[in-house]
Design a protein that fits this description.
Carboxymuconolactone decarboxylase family protein; about 130 residues; single chain
């Protein structure tokens, strides 16, 4: 079953939870879970769950592999190494190889710059335990 099989397209939270569970198997327990932690900005994860995972990752049009390629490139360009670490693991789940992830980093060097690519390489190595 894919995230595109969500029965109610207006349920962005449900679609987001399904997409996140598929991208990060074993990270989130089954059932309805509360992602809030009672601290400053606690709604940020819920906002991401509905707006990014539910409205974007659960869309038809691109598969998870393609979305991972795009996401890696964007995160490298933004210098968002913390998010990149998670998305390197998601990219592996979505079928990218370590060599393909390295190619995304190499390619980004030409567009986002060598410092961004070097930082991305460091983040990817950390995410992969290398």
């Amino acid at each position: 079953m894919s995230v595109n099989d969500v029965t109610d397209p207006t349920d962005l939270r449900g679609a987001g939870m399904k997409a996140m569970r598929e991208a990060l198997p074993g990270v989130f327990p089954e059932g309805d879970i509360d992602l809030r932690d009672g601290r400053l900005g606690e709604d940020l994860v819920e906002i991401g769950l509905t707006s990014v995972w539910g409205a974007l990752w659960a869309r038809e049009g691109l598969g998870g592999r393609d979305r991972s390629l795009v996401t890696l490139g964007i995160l490298i360009a933004l210098g968002a190494e913390a998010e990149l670490k998670t998305h390197v693991r998601i990219a592996l789940t979505n079928g990218l190889t370590k060599d393909e992830i390295a190619e995304v980093i190499y390619h980004a060097a030409g567009y986002a710059g060598f410092p961004r690519a070097t930082a991305a390489r460091t983040a990817a190595r950390e995410a992969l335990g290398e």
